[in-house]
Amino acid sequence: MPLLAAYFQRARSEMPPALQEIFSRRRLTARHGAVLTQLLTGQQLSVTELAGRLGVTLSTASELVGNLSDAGLVERQEDPANRRRTLVSLQQEYRPAVLSFIAIRAAPLLRAMASLSPRDRAGFVAGLAAWGREAQP
Q: For the chain, what percent of residues have pLDDT higher than 70?
């Protein structure tokens, strides 16, 4: 676990410079990064959907989206089908930087998974899924 902690602590230093500057200047955290990751699919998500995916309250998701919008990283717009819903999308100009960052951060896991046999890979995934279920509040 200490090795994984070090991996997570160096995340900011592996960010592309444009993202690193915004995250530092705006005091954004890993939770903000998790929102950006959810928006990489290219589809707009509601704040409620983001809250569910991230496992946070609606007010927390709204605050994170507001911070990211103020930083210029995401765009918020009213859902034309339901004016009470806010839809969120990643600003296109930052998509390459976020994709690059995710690729850098995912590389060690992808290399580790590639080195495992199919049986060991399935066991690893099953173990992570079990851990994820147990970690839920």
A: 98
**Residue 39 exposed, middle or buried by CB count within 10 Å (0-12, 13-18, 19+):** buried
Report the alpha-carbon distance of residue 58 to residue 55 in Å, rounded: 9
What is the rounded CA–CA span in Å between residue 27 and residue 20? 10
Please state the pTM of the whole predicted model.
0.82
Rounded Cα–Cα distance for residues 15 and 97 (Å): 8
Q: What are phi and psi of 95, to 5 degrees?
A: -55, -50
How far is 95 from 104, CA to CA, in rounded Å? 14
- Pairwise CA distance, residues 115 & 112, whole Å: 5
Residue 105 CA to residue 74 CA, distance in Å, equals 21
**pLDDT mean across residues, the chain:** 92
The residue written with tokens 């009470």 in the block is: 84
Q: How far apart are CA 101 and CA 99, in angstroms?
A: 5
Non-local (6+) Cβ contacts of 61 within 8 A are 35, 47, 48, 50, 51, 54
